[in-house]
Amino acid sequence: MLTLEQAQDAILAGVRRSERAETVPLARAVGRWLAADVAARVDHPGFDNSAMDGYAVAHADLAARGFRLPLKGEARCGDAPGALAPGTAMRIFTGAPLPEGADSVVIQEDVQRDGERARFPQHSRVGDHVRRRGEDFRAGDTLFDAGRRLGIYDLALLSAAGVAQVPVVARPRALVMATGDELVAPGEPLRPGQIYESNRLATLLQLEALGAETVDGGMVRDDPAALRALLRRSTDFDFVVTSGGASVGDYDLVRQVFAEIGEIDLWRVRIKPGKPLAFGRIGARTHFFALPGNPVSSLVTFKLFVEPALYVWHHGRHQPLELPAVAANGFKRRAGRREFLRARLYSDNGVLRAECLKGQGSHMLGTLRHTNGLIVIGEDSEGFAAGDPVRVLPL
Ligand code: AMP
Ligand code: MG
């Protein structure tokens, strides 16, 4: 059996990087991966300007003139003010360009106006309340490297940098299907021995959240011919994700049929839930994941293997945040596998606490109501007691 890291490394090493890119406007770029580095088009700030409402001065004038200066002119936002007349102060507003000859801004709260003159405080310093041209970034600076997945804040930065559109990796196409003779779509009546299918929708939506264009391949019987028919379409896709039918000792149907059209490896990984899963390739383009059928195993293996694979495919890097937390309750077990326990994470006066939820069977979905993270237990650990330090993966 492989460790989690061995399996992840081997799977990610088998992922091809996409070669298709397109250009999209910022409004459509959130969640997309950059296909090339992106540089700022302008300096930011673009010019020296005021950080406050107040008065622009040449600081040396203050002491030289007994902290009393005549007022002359006004610097407004969106305007180019003229030069500061020597020995005067100019009214200025937040964001307005600093007039030539000024080097400081005195905030209006500290200034006593007396008609067209004003009295200034003695404590101000050179450069106070001035935002310097280029102090944030300069035109030509690389703001993001290729492979960066763009978030909402990134788009604010790109807007400020004058970037209107970005080169991104074209979206992958993904086909999802669930296998099992027992499966019925919710809304249909159940006959004896049947259950409602619950993996496909979550898999489709997780893939979409990762930027994929998805096709719902539906539910497939445990019948080689039916599965073969669907898998024939798989060469149009970058990713094919199935659930069920992949375990050893089962009908092992997915692996059998898949082996006819591609290369597949069955992975026995020392993790719980989710032990057996299969990964393979069809031709140059298609990556194939056969996830376990148990609903929680399918969710966890998606997180651990499919999600990082999508990052790598996009030339990106997946770096999930594993955080230290304090166990709110205890959990005992036999050592042996890396285990992922569904947990409720909450903050308690600045301490991150993790409550291990009751009902950890890999068929048990009820626990998901309260799950917002996973407690990660190392292979050698026999569990933990309330108050012990644990590591958690927020979801
Ligand atoms: P399998 O991986 O096909 O051996 O299935 C393992 C367990 O997960 C069995 O109890 C199946 O009934 C169940 N299962 C498989 N696929 C699904 C699905 N799509 N939705 C809900 N349960 C499933
Ligand atoms: Mg099955």
Properties at a glance:
395 residues; alpha/beta; 18% helix; binds magnesium ion
Descriptive notes:
There is one protein chain. The protein is α/β, with parallel strands linked by helices and 395 residues long. The chain is built from seven helices and 28 strands. The protein has helices at 4-13, 59-64, 152-160, 200-209, 224-232, 253-261, 295-313; strands at residues 21-25, 38-39, 49-50, 54-57, 68-75, 89-92, 104-107, 112-114, 117-119, 130-131, 142-144, 165-169, 173-179, 183-184, 195-196, 213-220, 239-243, 263-268, 271-272, 276-282, 286-291, 323-327, 331-332, 338-348, 351-356, 373-377, 383-384, 389-394. A six-stranded mixed β-sheet has the order 7-4-6-5-9-8. Helix 4 (200-209) runs parallel beside helix 7 and helix 5 crosses helix 6 (253-261). The longest helix has 19 residues, at 295-313. The mean pLDDT is 95. Bound molecules: adenosine monophosphate and magnesium ion (MG). Adenosine monophosphate (AMP) is lined by residues 178, 180, 182-183, 195, 197-199, 243-245, 247, 250, 292-295, 363. Magnesium ion (MG) is lined by residues 179-180, 244-245, 250, 293.
Strand order of the largest sheet: 7-4-6-5-9-8
Instruction: Give me the number of helical elements.
Output: 7
Rounded mean pLDDT score: 95
* Ligand roster: adenosine monophosphate, magnesium ion
Q: Give the percentage of residues in beta strands.
A: 25-35%
- Judged by helices, strands and strand pairing, the structural class is alpha/beta
Helix content range: 10-25%
Give me the Rg, rounded: 30 Å
Q: Quick one: overall form?
A: elongated
Distance between the termini: 27 Å
Largest sheet: 6 strands, mixed
* Total strand segments: 28
Sequence stretches where pLDDT stays below 50 over 5 or more residues = none
